Amino acid sequence: MTVLTKAFYTLVSLVVITVYSLLLIGTMARVRAKAQGRIGQPAYQPFIDIIKNNSLRTGVSHGVMFFLGPVFRLAGGLGTYLFIPVIFGSAVFANFSFAGDLLLVMYFIFFGQLGMALGAGESGHPYTAIGVARGLAQMTAFELPFALSVIAVAAQHGTLSITEIVAAQQGGVANWVAFTNPLAMIAGMIAFLGMSGGNPFSVVLAPQEIPIGPPTEMQSSFLGMLQTNRAIFNGAKMVLFMNLFWGGAAHESLIVAILIMVAKTFLIYLYVTIVGASFPRFRTEQSIRFFIGVPTVIGVIAVVLQMV
Amino acid sequence: MVSPVYLIAGALGFAFLYPVFEAAGRRVGRGAATAAIAVFLAVTVAWILGLAAGGGPIVSHTAGFAAPLSIDLMVTLTDAVVLTVINTVALFGFVAMAFRRESGWMGKQVVLFFVLLVGSYGLVMTRDLFNVFVFMEISGIAVFGLLGTSRDGRAFEAGFKYMVASALASIFFLIGVAFVYRSVGSLNIADINGSAHLFVDGTAVLALVFLTTAILVELKPAPANGWALDIYEAADPGLSALLSAINATAMAMVLTRVLPLLDPRLLAVAGVAAFAVPHIQALRQESLGRMLGYSSVAQVGLVVLALSVGAPGVPFAGIALPAAIVLLLNHALAKAGLFWIASALRDDRTGSGEAPERAWPASLRGRPVALIAAAMLALALLGLPPFPGFWAKWNVVTTLGASQSYVILAFVLGGSLLEVVYIMRWLVGVSRSPGDDATTVAERIPADFAAPDDASGADADEEGEIAGAGVAVAQEGEIVGAGAAVATVAAALVLLISGLMAGWGAGVGVPLFIVAGALIAFALLDAVWIPVAVQAVLAVGGVGAYTYLLVPRLAGAPLVFALLFGAGGAVQMIAFLSGPARRPGLVSLTTAMIAALLGLTWADSPLALFVLWELMTISSFLLVLRGHRGAAGAFRYIVFSLGSAFLMLAAFAVSNLQLFAGGFGAAAPGPGEAIASLAALGRAGSISVLLLALAILTKLGSVGVHLWLPAGYAEAEDDVSGLLSSILSKAGVFLLFGGALIFAVPLTPRIGIDSLLGWIGVATAIAGAMMALFQEDIKYSLAYSSMSQVGYIVLAFAIMSHLGWVTGLYLSITHMLFKGMLFLGIAGVVSRTGTRLMYQMGGLIKRMPFSFISVLIAIIAVSGVPPLSGFGGKWLLYSALLERGWYLQAALALFSSGVAFLYLFRLIHTIFLGQRKAEHDAVREAPLAVLIPQYLFIVAIMAISMYPNVIIKPLQTAIEPILAGAVSWEGYAVITSLGYWNGNAVMYVTMGVFIAPLIWLLVVKGRVYRVEQFNIVYAAERPHTPQSTHYAYNFYGHYKKAFGRLTEPWIERFWNAVVDLTRSTSHVFRSWNTGNPQTYAFQIVLYLFLVLLFFRGVVL
After folding, report:
1. pLDDT at B464
2. Which residue among A304, B394, B414, B785 is least crowded, i.e. fewest CB within 10 A of its CB?
């Protein structure tokens, strides 16, 4: 495969995930509104936000690191997505999964978070740092059940390669990790709630009140990049979970495979939205205690079952 | 050669003549006396030369009759050496006492001193049992006289107690002599020894009971030695030096004369009690004289114990006596020297006592000669290399191991550790920085934020501490007279030279001499005021040359670590180019430490390995001690480190030197053979490996035994901390890998040492990371981070697979790089801001951008975020863990790495981002010399990140001979049975996904205005001051809340309880010595009774 072909495939893959994820975010915002008895925004609102932010004539920067923060963030999102194979057996959607396995993806998630936190930190806004402190603390806590779940899956299939994990799940719903290793799936899916930052784990950004967290000082095209990243990064995470637990997306027809991917990730996101709409918010220490409690125990059991 | 009798006659004659000399003037008297002792010394030296050249012992039959009718005086080579040491100490001791400014000896004191010499000479030379009694009495009278002439009431009282005790001993001795004569019909010791078979029935055994008790009591054995300690406490330290060195040495020689008559088990029991008990009692001593006294009686106990040591079934296999003599002489010089320092200091404090009121002795900083001498003497006393006592102790301990006397071995090493505690506490006290109250073992947070207009909050805080500490440097003029100084330095030099010669003899010459040479050469440069920068250049060149010469000789793990120690050390020493021009000892100690580490990599025997290990420990301890507030940390460091060293010594002894047999030299057995030879030892083999593992874990600061680590690293000077954390911490790691597969030896059929190591490693990783999280002081945070990272290395090692070991070595190298960078980066920041507390910093990115970039790259590398080299370490680690089936450990390691991400972010955020304080508006970038090493390391990190094969493949080659690999390569992609990683591709993808959005942003950004500090969207509030706007203090308070009681210092509490228990035990043992002469007399009679019981149980 030439470099140009790969570049073209990458572009296709990125456009698909960006457009889809933005629509998904808009849709879910609408779902949430319905649950709260509001009409909600149009599903295409995220597109409008991004275009608007990128079109602003002026912006404010606090320094070089601040300037680079959103770039790091988007690079993190793009990289995470590009190291995951999206559609099983598709050359277009295999991305750069040859560069590394599941561990690479798990660690590349940090890349954007770190860069963003640093960039936002240069603004000197205390709420930024507060948000980051909360977010990182919560992250370490949900990483524990997540890691256990991933290890259980890797041990189950004897591989850390995402492609091979998906391959092992082909041949029917019964082969999905969700059913062959349900405890790992449960631990992983609970961890996913934390990773998504919706209620009850939304204290990181606290979007309804005074905004905190990295975006606090962000505006104009900086904010636009963050919004783009949010879509791609969310997409990447959902695809990852789909691959790990829900059989991935595979079909002879690429269109059908994409539709399978859309359906599965939609349901995964819907699950996050439903939980979010149903529960109030935890304080940081409550989130931490939650994650190192029951989900971790479930994860440990899943791992121990693989050991015996 | 001069007849022995003339020595006695000469001393006695001079004692009579002295008043005549003094009548001509005090100066004449002192000069004549000094000259007389010098003549005696010359005689004994001549004897050594004569006897060493060949020929039998020098014998003098009094009155021309042969034994048993005459009294034999005999001088063997050993006796000549002992007499020479006695005369050396006598010469220096006399100079110290007679030439001091105040209350120098004169008149009857000098006469009595010569009488004491007569007694000691006689005790060493006589071969007649009754004559021994005579000389015991002569010595006793002289000592009593010297004590009695003191104007100090306490000394007089102590003299009375001494009379009581020595009278009892004399009576016992005389009864023994009478009974012996009844049984043997001769008082000639050779005849008596020749009739050892006669000592089986009642009277003869009773004779032995009395004789043994008398000799032992004269040696002041615990628990019948309270009287002796009262003397040491009350007497003039100068006199104590002579008592401890001359009198005890002579009496110990008497014991060696009758060895064939004695049961080694009795000596072993008496020796263990005499060695261990005083060490416990000494722990709480608040009087230096008494503390040294306890040490003195314990050391003589060790000599008694050493005399009992022999090969199994062969009690005196010729090994014990030389070792015992060397111990005796080492002790004589070291103890005399310490007493002289005590006498010069006139400071009787020891640093004992509970924390706040603890009375530290005055600091000797600013008096380099006294300080160096004190350190050398203390190290010599503790039996550390290169001093003679070390070689003897090694001999004793390994012989104990070979003869499977494990209980005695435990007592010897345990007692030695207690001695380390109280001697090092004093040493730390006298060598600490003048402003250091020696309490800093954790970060110090001022009660409240410094006022905003206070430009240097931290400085003010530290000045406050200095004022509050209430300690001062020894006042000018407090060091009385030059005599003590000359004597002390001479003793230290004699010990050093003889120790180095012994090292040469033991085959550890070259690496030892390189370390000693580096130490001495740079110390001399310090002495002639050569600036640190010049020294640093020489040191970098020297270390580089040593490494360059070493590398072609090495292969495998030793090669990897030699490069790590040499290159890592040399690069970091570049930072010494900045900073003050005069920092005495810095380059000297650092170079010695690196030389010891490098020496470790080509040690060719367990002995060489251990010697270099100890040298590395000592030099690093002194480096920590140099820190501004480093005393308490250094104290913990040395206690734990020597505890670790003694565990290692025990491991070597128990394994009968099978561990690291051949070291890393050509003679070293292959991994298979090493395991086979351990397996042949059976249980002893696995126990020795366990002991070695515990030793290494302690040195690595694993959780539970990590208490030395935080202050040890953090309180060292800023540019030294990095060396300690990045280089020194790898010494233990090196031994893990250098030991090849010995740690795969199972402890029991079900439990492997490797799995224990694995769990300890992961627990350390988590504990270290958690503690790093809650520190406000950046250096403490980094210290705990170091602990955590080394935990990963232990975990990786414990996997015991090819991949695991590649991981371990890879982590060792990358940890060296990024921890060096972090500590140096922080050193730069601290040097500019004057504070180590993170919340007092902030917003420094614009002032110190180069430091920021370096710290940024380092934290990306530490946290394992791709694409930098840290990810390679994580990927290798998890792959190896999952391959081994260690799933839970893998999950915990992942959790720990998440926590690491937390403290790393906090580090960079609170220092470089957020709000800059007004007082830091004008800070400059870190000095160039501090930045250069960091950027050299950045180049290395970038190269490893981009081309991981460059480093991983050689590591694989290094490990291949020991553990075959299942790792394959496809281009730049490394492939294991579980997964794959292409560092090169990751780097390119990352660059791509970074550059594309950057270009996008540059295109669409519109006009971007740069705004000033404080121009933020602050939700209807107005930012007030940087202090109130910078979110930094208690950054992860919620984390602490979440983990609640788990974050409490349980381990610190445990060790505090251990300390309390030891102190209480010490108190119980101490109260046995009431100070009442009747009690002491009772103790001696009881001792006789115990000896009697022993003989009845064993012999009758």
Report:
1. 38
2. A304
Q: What is the pLDDT of residues B988-1022, one digit of tens each?
A: 999 999 999 999 999 988 888 998 888 888 766 77
Structure tokens at B498: 């003889």
Dist. CA B206–CA B177, nearest whole Å? 10
Through-space distance between the first and last CA atoms of chain B, rounded to whole angstroms: 46
Q: For residues A145 and A183, what is the distance between their CA atoms, to the nearest angstrom?
A: 11
B44-77 per-position pLDDT tens digit:
999 999 999 887 889 888 777 776 677 889 999 9
Distance from CA of A174 to the nearest CA of B (A): 24
Confidence (pLDDT) at B1098: 61
- Domain, as residue range, for A51: 3-307
Is the pLDDT at A267 greater than 70? The verdict is yes
Nearest-angstrom CA–CA distance, B944 and B869: 6
Q: Which residues contact B977 (CB under 8 A, 6 or more apart)?
A: A158, B883, B966
Percent of chain B residues past pLDDT 90, beyond the cut: 64
Average pLDDT, integer, range B186-207 = 86
Burial class for A277, CB neighbours closer than 10 Å (0-12, 13-18, 19+): middle
What interface predicted TM-score (ipTM) does this complex get?
Answer: 0.95
Residue of B nearest to A56 (CA): B1006
What pLDDT score was predicted for residue B320? 67
Tell me which residue in B978, B1017, B1030 faces A217 most closely, judged by beta carbons. Answer: B1017
Sign of the dihedral through C-alpha B585, B586, B591, B592: positive
Residue B461, pLDDT > 50, answer: no
Are B373 and B488 in contact, with CB atoms under 8 Å apart? yes
Q: Please give the average per-residue pLDDT across B540-565, as a whole number.
A: 95
Residue A103 Cα distances to A162, B515, B885, angstroms: 10, 44, 16
Q: How many distinct structural domains can be found in chain A?
A: 1
Cβ contacts of A17 on chain B, cutoff 8 Å: none
Q: Residue B173's closest CA among B209, B224, B222, B124?
A: B209
Q: b/e map of B667-705 (b: 16 or more CB within 10 Å)?
A: ebeebeebbebbeebeebbbbbbbbbbbbbbbbbbbbbb
Mean pLDDT of A20-26: 96
CA B1067, chain centre distance (Å): 25
Chain B residues with beta carbon closer than 8 angstroms to that of A61: 1008-1011
| Across B415-439, average pLDDT | 91
Residue spans of alpha helices (H) in chain A: 3-35, 45-55, 64-82, 102-122, 126-157, 162-168, 177-180, 182-196, 220-245, 254-278, 284-291, 294-307
pLDDT for B448 equals 67
Question: What are the residue ranges of helices labelled H in B727-801?
Answer: 730-738, 753-773, 778-798
Task: Determine, for residues B1009 and A60 on separate chains, whether the beta-carbon distance falls below 8 Å.
Answer: yes
B1010: β partners: A61
Beta strands in B477-548 (DSSP E): none
| Partner-chain residue, chosen from B879, B982, B994, that has the shortest CB–CB distance to A99 | B982
Q: What confidence category does residue B351 fall into, taking pLDDT thresholds of 50, 70 and 90?
A: confident
Mean pLDDT of B901-918: 93
Q: Measure the CA–CA gap between B233 and B856, rounded to whole angstroms.
A: 58
**Contact state of B1038 with A285 under an 8 Å Cβ cutoff:** yes
| Residue in B847, B905, B976 to test binding to A, most A beta-carbons within 10 Å | B905
Count Cβ–Cβ pairs < 8 Å, chain A vs chain B.
Answer: 259
Contact B1042 A103 (CB under 8 A): no
Q: Look up residue B896 and give its two tokens.
A: 């720990």
CB contact under 8 Å between A114 and B1038, yes or no, is: no
Q: Where does B913-1036 have alpha helices with state H?
A: 928-946, 948-959, 983-1004, 1026-1029
